[in-house]
Automatic annotation (TrEMBL):
Residues 12-178 form the N-acetyltransferase domain. Gene3D superfamilies: 3.40.630.30. Coiled coil: none annotated. The lineage of its organism: Bacteria, Pseudomonadati, Pseudomonadota, Betaproteobacteria, Burkholderiales. This is GNAT family N-acetyltransferase.
Length: 198
């Protein structure tokens, strides 16, 4: 792990994961199965961290950078508080896509999700992002409520998306930043228009 310049509260540090951190990422997945049980119907498989860490966007998607980040207490002996995967300029310049955002189960209800997302949003804006984009599994009620409360709106749904042992419906959600608009985004990313082919 190496420090990553994301503006966190003073008691939290953000670290960029590298390939040698895959076992620690798998340990985080194993210790926090709730997300995987909700969206996939089963705990994380033994190779999921390796697969996730090395997974790239589809070949037809442009992007500039991918980051796998862990949030930890400044005291390193504490477990990771959360992980996030971010892709910059996905499909269009200025689109910051949040792939995974998992807060450790022990931290639920403590305001960590809100505080850490605030850090991500500030970082993205400072990097020139104009939109935040993500997908939420329909039925993951905690996540659906949280992202709506942060100002994300649904653009469309995609159905039959595999995760674990399930096929899910995904809400594609967007939050414009810095005066950008949803209409400007949809003019750039035809795939997310409500009337675009599935």
């Amino acid at each position: 792990m190496r420090p990553f310049a994301l503006p966190c509260p003073p008691e939290i540090q953000c670290m960029a994961l590298e390939s040698e951190d895959i076992p620690a990422l798998q340990a985080f997945f194993d210790a926090n199965p709730e997300y995987f049980l909700i969206v996939g119907g089963e705990a994380a498989g033994p190779n999921l961290a390796t697969e996730e860490f090395h997974e790239l966007p589809p070949a037809e998607f442009s992007y500039s950078r991918m980051h796998y980040l862990a949030f930890t207490a400044v005291e390193p002996r504490e477990p990771w508080r959360a992980i996030v995967q971010i892709t910059s300029d996905l499909m269009a310049e200025g689109v910051c896509h949040i792939g995974l955002f998992i807060v450790a189960t022990a931290q639920h209800g403590r305001g960590d999700a809100q505080a850490l997302f605030d850090c991500i949003e500030r970082w993205a804006a400072n990097q020139g992002a104009r939109w935040l984009r993500l997908g939420v599994v329909v039925g993951n009620l905690r996540a659906e409520r949280f992202w709506a409360s942060q100002g994300f709106v649904e653009l469309r749904q995609r159905h039959g998306v595999p995760s674990g042992s399930r096929l899910n419906s995904i809400r594609v959600m967007l939050k414009p930043l810095a005066g950008a608009t949803q209409a400007e985004y949809l003019a750039l990313v035809a795939r997310d228009r409500p009337d675009a082919p599935l």
